[in-house]
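Submission sheet (multi-component)
Chains listed below:
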Amino acid sequence: MKERLSLGIDIGSTTAKVVVVEDGKIIYERYQRHFSQVRQKTLELLTEAAPYAGERPFTAAISGSAGLGLAEGAGVPFVQEVFATGEVVRRLEPDAGVVVELGGEDAKIIFFEGGIDERMNGSCAGGTGAFIDQMATLLNVTADELDALSLESARLYPIASRCGVFAKTDIQPLLNQGAKHADVAASIYQAVVNQTIAGLAQGRRITGKVLFLGGPLYYCKGLRRRFQETLKLTDDQAVFPEYGRFAVAMGAALYAESAGGTYTMAELRRRIEESVCVRSEENLLPPLFASQSDYEAFRARHAAATVREGDLASYTGDAWLGIDCGSTTTKAVLLGADREILYTYYSSNRGNPVEIVREQLEKIYRLCGDRAVIRGSAVTGYGEELIRAAFGVDRGVVETIAHYTAAKYFCPQVDFILDIGGQDIKCFQIKNGAIDSIMLNEACSSGCGSFIETFARSMGCEVAEFAEKGLHARAPVNLGSRCTVFMNSSVKQSQKDGATVEDISAGLSVSVVKNAIYKVIRAGSADELGQHVVVQGGTFYNDAVLRAFELELGREVIRPAIAGLMGAYGAALYAMDAVSAPRSGLITPEGLADFVHTAKTAVCQGCANHCRLTVNSFGGSKKYISGNQCQKGLGIQSAQEVPSLYAWKRDALTALTPGAELRGTVGLPLALGMYELAPLWHAFFTNLGFRVEVSGLSTRRVYEKGQFSIPSDTACYPAKIMHGHMEVLLEKGVDAIFYPSLTYNVEEHGGDNHYNCPVVAYYAELLHGNMDDLERTRFLYPFLNINDRRELARELFACLEPVFPGVTKKEVKKAVDAAFAAYERHMLEVRRQGEAAVAWAREHGKRIMVLAGRPYHVDPEIGHGIDKLAASLGFVVVSEDSVCHLADPVPVHVLNQWTYHARLYRAARFACENKDVQLVQLVSFGCGVDAITTDEVRRILEESGKLYTQIKIDEITNLGAVKIRLRSLIGALEEKGV
Amino acid sequence: MIDQEKGYVVFTEEMKKTHTILVPNMLPMHFKLISRVLERSGYKMELLETSGPQIAETGLKYVHNDTCYPAILVIGQFIDALQSGRYDPDKVALILFQTGGGCRASNYIHLLRKALAKAGLGHVPVISLSLAGLEKHPGFRLTVPLMMKMMYGVLYGDLLMSLVNQCKPYELEKGSAQALADRWTERLAEEMSVRASYRRVRASYRPILDSFAALPMERREKVMVGVVGEIFVKYSPLGNNNLEQFLVDEGAEVVIPGLLDFCLYCVYNNLLDHKLYGMQKNVQFAYRIAYRYLVNKERDLIAAMASHGVFTPPTLFTHTIQLVQGTISMGVKMGEGWLLTAEMLELADKGVSNIVCTQPFGCLPNHICGKGMMKPIKAKNPDINIVAIDYDAGATRVNQENRLKLMLANAASKETRVPAGAAKAR
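Outcome: structure written.
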């Protein structure tokens, strides 16, 4: 007999939903956060639902990403959530074309037209609802307030949509630079929309009647608006049903009608109560402390590492102020003449560091009275320039130097400093009293302090309480050591296995530590770090992290009592050492009373790049402008033309103009390998009588044009942008587009072989398979042997003759010769320009930077203007291919089989052989090959006592962080006297 | 010690007597057979059968964390074994199979040596086993008869794997198919060590097939699920969180293309290098012989299965080649290259329309021949139901299983579901 009642339970990653359906109508529905207490929350919801069912039997099923364990334990049928959604939509909205459903951590899309296609986000795509929550925390608002804010936005900032961590590193500097919260809020939503399109639609257009489901799309009006505007949907096409939050639970209820079990409420409750999960033993770690006495000894040891303190209320004399305006927190320290700490401050900057510093200065001045006189001040951290401009702080000091100054004061023999802050991990190896190497986390692994903090909140605890719980965990879970997004799902898994909050807290601490040791420091043993290790940064206030670090390293370390204030403390020490002026230039108490701060946005008209600027005004003519990639936005023209190989190469490529059209037009997409071979193919086709259209340098807009057809969102940005270049060429209406498949690259005899990477070699195949629009032209992507001219001519003829009848073998042969002549001229000129730039730098006493990547990294959109940034910091920038001929091939410990990468090793050797040359390696996110090259380049450099700097770049790159890296490099070089 | 000229620790002739060679575990049955073959040639072999999270962790400790997951696992498994105290580090050598090519997988052996050095085990010799003969080790020479025997191991392995997959979901006594395969593995290895001839191999097909056909089974309709992907995560339970077992437990019959296809693919690519680029002229003759040899062996195996009539034989490589035309060029030869696309089409051609495409997270070739080809494959086969699963040290089983469950739910409902067009008309 069919029951009239059916009950659906949906347990997502953050919320639990229960619906009771009677004769197809919902008679009970409830939606609540479960704070990982899955079983308990489900029982609560069932208790509430009990009156609606009474004693009647009903059918029931469970769905949701966190519901599987419960369903298995209780023996209740389970239905996959996307499938459940599909059931509901087929029943209730049969004319829907597409369903977009965002959940706590999953995003799903279902296409109904032309064969049902159900998709979920891949493992790297990060969360959605949880992501919005995290971002709200960053802005120090609730999710509702974030939504309200977003509706008042005036402009959108580009924010990385690949994953939460990336987005976070984009948002933080925006906030610190004073961008409006309303605009940031809307931009966060836009990032979610972009991610859904790029990560899920993968080449299928979202059109027709679109149904939007799931909690975030139910609650966030601003998110709805962004989706509707981006997809250009009318109000009739975009449907946000009232039952949006409950779609999965309803689907479970509908599924239950045919395939679920039949229960009474008491029976179902009993089953769930008795569903004790068996924890698998294999993923557990030993507890952090074996016994209470271990814990007490640990406590006592670390309590000893304190600093002398003074009392500002009674202090009379000179004082020095240090401010550390970090990504998530602002810190301040005031030192007395004996370096005693008179005043400290540590707090979240709540998205507005300027206001916090203003409050603090007021307070400090009040406490100083007329007894204490501030003689000097210094500021460090992400907000350094902003704070300096706002308050007239005397000096700015790069973070690494500030931290080293502080640690050295604490432990003069320090060998290694590890600083885990809210957003960064910084590690410095110290040798002979100078920074010997600096390791910073990549954007991808920046799950540090703020990660634990947001996690603690999502479990309903404050961070201190969360840490405390971790200390006493009996069986910490092993959560892996990947980026935070992966950790999120590891936590989900452990919750399914029945881990407690205590176990998760301890497990997270271990993960943060492992991430730092194995991913950032890349250390195999404690000895690589040295005897005296100082750990600092706010994250180390967490005793669980500290203990996990000591255990993992097998060595005791020093954690100063002011671990979180070390940057500010170092800045204050720096101010003290540096200043001899009678009085600080810091804003006066009177000035502070009149202080105003406004931020507005502008678009720079300095060049075609059109950087979006944030202009901060502090009353009068005091201004601070950020968001610029070069000095032009600040109204500064460079006095002399400093050579830059990146600029030169860009100019050389944009100078490839179309010639006369005799046979037709051929388009060359300027991306991936074409960045190297454009001069060759341009000459080839021009010589054959074709008009050659090159798609030109990339912009963000170019990427967006093609993002709809990207099938694999974890491919590198230089590959993904290829889709946009194809669109550009299609718009130009060319007769054919040419991007050959080159398994083998040009043989330069610099390594064991001369391959291209798989992506450069075969991306054309992917384009052909995924871009329907290419049918509008002829897409030629022949497999070619570029190292044998005769063979190449044969292959090219075979490719062109069917498409352009009349092309003769002889012509092709001649064109091939002309092509190689042009290519060789180009490469020779690259090398000549490289030599000239080096000579110019030496003549003018400038530092030389080999900004080493791939040919396509000179693109302004892919390289994000890092070359210009380096130039503005005083470097003469050369590319790897312009100097690699100046050094011999290097013996490496890996298979040196890719042409582009062999150049990297040689360029590294060139840097080793020249004192005034530094190498900075650009690495695109997702470049698998660079997992191999980076370790080798680092080894080559470090064996010669050179500093290794790596910059990981992606779709969007936070130049603020890059700047800190480059300035750290300069700081370390200065310390070393290079 | 490191041979200065060669740049790596050489496996000397004396070591043949003193050292135990550890073998990583990718395909348990195949590798066991191959190990036995080598044992009978005088080597001390040991197939590593360790598992558990410490393997990935050890790997992460010694290998760059962005390296592909198979490298992290294989290297982790080796170092974990060396550090376990079960072996004398001065009496152990390691062996890795190498295919070469533009994929970063060619670097595994170098990454392994770097990792060993980092772990203080730099003196342990690593033998590279490759048909291309990338490295020379005096103590380890591949003779033609030895290579033939190893080939027989692959043939037997493919047959047993296929039979186990076809019996396991239906067996009345749980574990009986695997137990039978294990008995055969022992027996065949023993046999080959005494006398190995291709005639014997062919003669063994029939009794093997008979014995599996005689297993007590219950014939029921099951959902067929194909598994393709990067070779390590496709085959190794360590790499894919026991994917096969999961699918069987969910009530599916698993179809996995065999290792012979991959061998044929490697040989065929060398023929293509000549055809496409005019390269490798001098060795074309040898490759052509090898290709014909392998094609014939595959044909024999398929014919034996077909004439026996109980089990579904694999698809002929020559047919697979036909299927891929027009979807992806066969010039795509890094990693699994065009073979991966071809295997998906081959499964669809066989009527296996539910497919799991496995890859290590961030696998470069799979951007193109895996995820990049799904759209054209779907265009050709509208009913196909493919799910791409990424494997990684940090990826969780719960996420993977959730996606697999979606694929299975779609598979199960395919027959009962009203087509989208009809739903609209209602």
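Remark: The first strand of chain B starts at residue 2 and ends at 3.
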